[in-house]
Amino acid sequence: MAFLALGINHKTASVDVRERVAFTPEQMVDALRQLCQETMSREAAILSTCNRSELYLEMEQPTADRILTWLADYHHLSFEELRACAYVFQEDAAVQHMMRVASGLDSMILGEPQILGQMKSAYAVAREAGTVGPLLGRLFQATFNTAKSVRTDTAIGENPVSVAFAAVSLAKQIFSDLNRSQALLIGAGETITLVARHLYEQGVKRIVVANRTLERASHLAEQFGAHTILLADIPQELPNSDIVISSTASQLPILGKGAVERALKQRKHKPIFMVDIAVPRDIEPEVSELADVYLYTVDDLHEVITENLKSRQGAAQAAEKLVLAGVQDFMHRLRERAAVDVLRAYRQQAEQMRDEELARAQRQLANGVSPEIVLASLARSLTNKLLHAPSVQLKKLSAEGRVDALTLAQELFALDGSEDK
User: Is 368 known as a binding-site position?
Assistant: First the structure.
């Protein structure tokens, strides 16, 4: 039994690499099943967000290179390119990494709350795929409990900030008065919802939500008095937009350089502030070449995020202690459970010996043998049977020079090692 956590994130890989290693929701179930089949992993889950792609595995023998080879082949990357930016954690370190991720301690924005929901979704998808079993399942539950303790018992979640918050903060720097600005939000997921909330609270003049379907966009728009359009209508809306923030799951860019260039002409080159939070990217990188566009990716938000980290460092120290406690508690319970399995098997073996000797004693009594003789024979025979296997193994191990086994036996059987007792 061994846990393995392996992947890349915003600290180790550029957005270009991260978008090539990202898994779409449509890929996830088949990818999980293929991962288990081709890497001999007994249990597996995949977490894929704009900032990280991670594999959580339970396997008999951890083989990081085999997992990396599968990941590279699946996304058509070279093994060397992926290995250069990947990290691998095993056993206790893998447990600690998962708990730190779920608690927001490994996020671009320290303590951001979205990652816990994304981790829960990863667990749900793995359960749907049938790739989560008892061990990884217990690890996920312990991870969720630890993350909940971090949220409840520390201040790391107070005054929450996120990539969405950072994007709006940058917009405020470029447009001193957001009351006069119009915003186009592309997508209708959780990140865009947070963006809409922050813009709404800042009093943005007009918010338009563009999405593949109007139903989901309408639900978001109702909360913030926004308008809704389809993705196909973006070129008509773009000339009216001072702020464009995009976060979809599209595998191809939604906004190209030509469309933005035409919009700028209609705006008479009035600047447009753009943030592409998506991985893979929604806005072609070439858009940044246009003189009147301020285009930022998630990596570009780092400076804003750094300022927001300062108020959370004290809380992070307390959160790290809770994570370490969570790791120790989980590993202790896991090892305890392993002992329970051994004890159960030993008890079943002992009970079988007892039943056999009891049946023999009952036959002797039925044949008229003295009860005293039967009881003595029962006690002697049962003792011999119970001690036979341990005695044989201890002699064998002692002959092999395994002094550690003798010391362990003394501890296991609560012996003090003296010969006069």
Answer: no
